Structures are given as structure tokens and as C-alpha cells.
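F.,

This is the one I mentioned.
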């Protein structure tokens, strides 16, 4: 009997915990619209074991010095001099708005001299090896550089994350680590960390580009930079490349997850939904309490139903056997079955 009661209450608490929060979390606003939901794109995501039985991947190419350890990573460069490797999507990214999350690792034995770094690409061309972190110079599109070696003196520290929007004609300012090209940057100690390192890129067409980095702790995202009013190529290829020279590191890609971002409708009448009533959306400061009381109300309803059902079960267990003729039953359901043939649920 106690086991049945415990199981019922476990189900009730599980249901209570699974009830969605009314506030819906933190929205990313785009003017008067928000990113309402995301849809993962298999064509631009890659996870272990990375390759199929033919040692290929349907949606990605890798080359130069890159190789795959199916249990761990795609290693673009080993920690040896003069290495270059790349990973590129085979098809362009057609989503208008998207979120790309890259888990990576930069490591090496040296604590003083290391480099050169890796880059994430959203460009019109693909698999064009060159001097800019393993990709061609004068590219058209976006390059986000995870630079670990300073070619000149700067007032900021390294490692550093810096973005450049290429027009197909402008050279990367390699002598000054891209100072002449930067549209946004931040310093972040993503090399040789004990935490999982990730980069998250959010782009909404003609509105903004937002870059966040995780390197301190799990799910601890640090704002790197945001660029408003930016336009990227309509259908870019997604790529990652890395380069070593006289100084070197191992540059690994652990996974790439890409989502298409779906915005709320322009015609959504938000004021009408917040005009009043039980299920109206409260102001941001009141959402946590509002959602708590809604969930508590629903949980109380579940408990009332459970108690009512349990009492009905007790009554039927005690008196059902007498109604069925009585003898030979023990804890039955009033169906006349003996203990050994009792139906169990």
C-alpha cells in the first residue's frame, strides 16, 4: 500500500517539476521582436564520432593536416611547427537568422611561446588555404579569430577573440593582429583551461551579430562583443581553420551545433496579451512569482485528484470483496479473485 502511495506522489512531483515556466526564460530582443525558438540544422552540426563507415561525413570536409579521433575531437593542428588544418561545411547555410555554438580546445605544453591560433569562418568561399589562420586572405564574409600569439605590442592581453568583416579586397592586418580590421573583440583566457571552452555566435539578418565565450565554468557565458546593423553574406559556408608557425599549439574542434533562429511575428499583439486576466504576461520583475503561483495552483489540483482517487481505491479495496461474495479474497478489487490470482497494475 505504501509503495502505491509513494509512486503516486512521485508522479505528482515529477509532473509539477515538468510544468513549464510561464515567463519562458530570457528573450533575445530584435527591435520589437524576439527569438521565439530555434531549430537545429543537421547540415551544419557535427558531433562525435564525426565520420561514417566510409570514413567520410555527409555534410563536412576536413583536410590538410587535420585528422579525426572519433572518440575525442577533430584535430586541426598538432602541437608541432608549421601545421595547417581546416574543417568546412559542404553546403552553404541558408538560414536567415542563426545561432552557432562551437566547442573547441586549444592546448600545448609551453606556457610562454605558443600560437598561432584558429579562426571561425562565415564566407562565400570554402577550402581556400592561406596565411590567415589557415585560410585565404582577402576573403568575403566574416572571420572570427581566436588569436593566441601577439605579433606586436598592444594595451590588451592575449589570447584574444577578434572579428573582421571582409569585402574580398581588404587584407588582414597581420602585423598588428588585425587592429585595422576589427569590428569587435575581447580578451579571454580560453587556452589550457580546466573548463569546457565554447564560442556562441548569434546572427539576426541586418540587425546584429552577438558573440559570447565560455571559458571560466560550464554554462558561464561571457559577453565578448556585439555589432549592430551588420549584414553578412546571404548563404555563407561555415568553416574552422588553424595554423602554427615557429610557435605552436594543438587546435581541436569538439563539436559544432547550428540552429535556425525563428523570430516572433511582427504582427504579434503583445499589448493585448498583457492587458489583464489570469494568464496575462506580467512585467519582467513579477514573472518568477507569477509562474510560481500558477505552478503551485496546478500542483494543488493534481494533489486533490490523487487524494480523491486514493480514497476511492481504499473504499473499493475494503468493501469490494464483500460485495462480490466475500470469501477467499485479500486486498482484492471486489472482483472475487484470490490473493494468488490478484490482478496487479
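My design for it:
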Amino acid at each position: 500500500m505504501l509503495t502505491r502511495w509513494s509512486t503516486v506522489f512521485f508522479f505528482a512531483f515529477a509532473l509539477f517539476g515538468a510544468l513549464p515556466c510561464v515567463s519562458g526564460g530570457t528573450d533575445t530582443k530584435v527591435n520589437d521582436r524576439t527569438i521565439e525558438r530555434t531549430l537545429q540544422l543537421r547540415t551544419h552540426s557535427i558531433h562525435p564520432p564525426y565520420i561514417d563507415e566510409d570514413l567520410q561525413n555527409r555534410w563536412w570536409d576536413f583536410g590538410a593536416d587535420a585528422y579525426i579521433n572519433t572518440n575525442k575531437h577533430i584535430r586541426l593542428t598538432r602541437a608541432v611547427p608549421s601545421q595547417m588544418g581546416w574543417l568546412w561545411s559542404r553546403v552553404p547555410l541558408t538560414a536567415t537568422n542563426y545561432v552557432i555554438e562551437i566547442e573547441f580546445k586549444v592546448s600545448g605544453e609551453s606556457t610562454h611561446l605558443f600560437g598561432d591560433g584558429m579562426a571561425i569562418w562565415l564566407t562565400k568561399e570554402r577550402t581556400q588555404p592561406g596565411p590567415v589562420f589557415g585560410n585565404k586572405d582577402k576573403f568575403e564574409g566574416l572571420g572570427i579569430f581566436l588569436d593566441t600569439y601577439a605579433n606586436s605590442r598592444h594595451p590588451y592581453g592575449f589570447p584574444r577573440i577578434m572579428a573582421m568583416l571582409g569585402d574580398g579586397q581588404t587584407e588582414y592586418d597581420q602585423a598588428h593582429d588585425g587592429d585595422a580590421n576589427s569590428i569587435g573583440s575581447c580578451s579571454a583566457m580560453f587556452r589550457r583551461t580546466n573548463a569546457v571552452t565554447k564560442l556562441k555566435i548569434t546572427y539576426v539578418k541586418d540587425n546584429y551579430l552577438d558573440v559570447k565565450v565560455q571559458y571560466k565554468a560550464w554554462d558561464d557565458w561571457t559577453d565578448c562583443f556585439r555589432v549592430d546593423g551588420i549584414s553578412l553574406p546571404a548563404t555563407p559556408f561555415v568553416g574552422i581553420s588553424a595554423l602554427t608557425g615557429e610557435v605552436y599549439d594543438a587546435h581541436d574542434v569538439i563539436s559544432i551545433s547550428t540552429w535556425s533562429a525563428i523570430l516572433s511575428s511582427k504582427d504579434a499583439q503583445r499589448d493585448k496579451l498583457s492587458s489583464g486576466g489570469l494568464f496575462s504576461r506580467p512585467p519582467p520583475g513579477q514573472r518568477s512569482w507569477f509562474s510560481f503561483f500558477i505552478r503551485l495552483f496546478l500542483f494543488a489540483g493534481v494533489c486533490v485528484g490523487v487524494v480523491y482517487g486514493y480514497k476511492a481505491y481504499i473504499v473499493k479495496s475494503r468493501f469490494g470483496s464483500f460485495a462480490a461474495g466475500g470469501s477467499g479474497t485479500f486486498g482484492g478489487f471486489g472482483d472475487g479473485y484470490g490473493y494468488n490470482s490478484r490482478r496487479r497494475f
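The two ends are 12 Å apart (CA to CA).

Talk soon.
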